[in-house]
User: What shape does this take?
Amino acid sequence: MHRRTARRGTAALAAAAVAAAVLGALTACTAPENGDAVTGIVPAPTSAEYPDAAPFRLDASSRIVASGAGAAAVAELFAEQARGATGFELPVVDGEGGASLRQAQGGADLAFVVAAGSAPDGAEEGYVLEAGGDGVRIAADTAAGLFRGTQSLRQLLPPAIERTDAAGGEPDGGWTVPAASVADAPRFAYRGAMLDVARHFFPVEDVLAYLDAMALVKLNVLHLHLTDDQGWRLQIDSWPELTGIGASTSVGGDGGGFYTKDDYRRIVDYAAARFITIVPELDLPGHTNAALSAYPELNCDGVAPEPYEGTEVGFSSLCASPERAAVTDRFLADVTREVAELTPGPWLHLGGDESLSTSTEDYLDLVRRIGAAGAATGKTVIGWHEMGASRELPPGTIGQYWSFVEPEGDAVPQTQSFVEQGGRVIMSPADVAYLDMEYVDDPQGPLGGRLGLDWAKGPTSLDEAYKWDPAAVVPGIGDDELLGVAAPLWTETIRAHSELEFMAFPRILAIAEIGWSPRPASDTGVRGDGDIAEFFGRVAAVGRHLDALGVTYHRVRGVPWVE
Assistant: This one.
């Protein structure tokens, strides 16, 4: 885990000031009231209008008429959830087979369309959404864009749409969507969350639940940090003790665990159905005590270290000596090959951070060999920004920046190095994007006790997570050089799924919006107090959906949460 000792004082913007501004901005920023909750979409669409016109009403006669490649699968996923909440049959019918839209008994149909030329500027994940008394139409150029549109529709429906059974009946006002006209497309192609399952292991069902919550706010990448000093969490057939000895521990002696290959395939498939790409990370050449404890031959002295249950970093390293070159290179080739074979997505994250016990010469040698092994799988390699110290990266290697909004040390030249070698950059500044940083009000976690760390200049507030621009962090790294943004969640202090959610929500909503919504028109690209107030109003609306989903979140100060 990236950790430094610098601390920050007070939050950049007082929560009380934001709360006052919310009162003036809430009405302007949201759609009309829907039942007992004010609706609003997170992330904010490129454009959205809510005319004073008849709303759409979903009822027992409504159908989804799907047409175009992949539309039926997207429609069925939406319908499955809506059936559970409403009790309606909500059949999915083939629009290309002659089915036409209809109105009946006061309700109306929904049209889900995939057709070239539908999305704004042909954006791959773009969509348009029209809702009114005569029905709903969502259209996109791709199935991915159509799915993103359904998540906006989901947020415009009453929060009760997230229920899994229909026992509660209709919400006040019925299953209505305000009249709306939305045209939308993302700013960045890569909008990610990272989950550390190495410090503490999280079973498959927890990961699937996290994917569901991510999908609601249009995140499209889950980066799984699968290996570290405390545990190796993915089955490797050619090196079985990686998930024997290497998976036996977690921080604090909380026990281990790992994913079988079938477990991992299940996660990949579940994510793919929600148009989320899994990016596996094998953290190399440091953060490797779990691997070294499983296989003594990977150590320069041939002696296996004890399994590790602490939280220090930077003490472990693969061996770079010529005497161990054959076994080290075989290890690198085997583990990258097996992980790549399980992963249909284009990326393979290979770490590269905090190799503090590795000499510069050995680090550069190992990074060259690690990068070559990763590239040999056909995947595009991603590495933390320290990997940019190497000038021998595979062409197109992606750098993930984790320093601060105001960079320190060698972070700037190391990050620029990826672009100079033909790659791009993912922005994850620790002081605004790391979800494991303490909250400013230091709340007790859902299971008691305090959660999070403070090394990234102290606690992080929701407005700080929102008030930064990825294109204004590293000189020379603007929108054209950015692949996107990601919000890491490290788990030294996090042991349970409810704690994971509590630390992620609502701050992950800020990163989702930064990754999707247009850059503010100000000269700096930084959102002002009015933008934050408007965002907080929409966060409150999404909070009602999180309540219905059963997601545990922290009710941070300044947000007008609906009781």
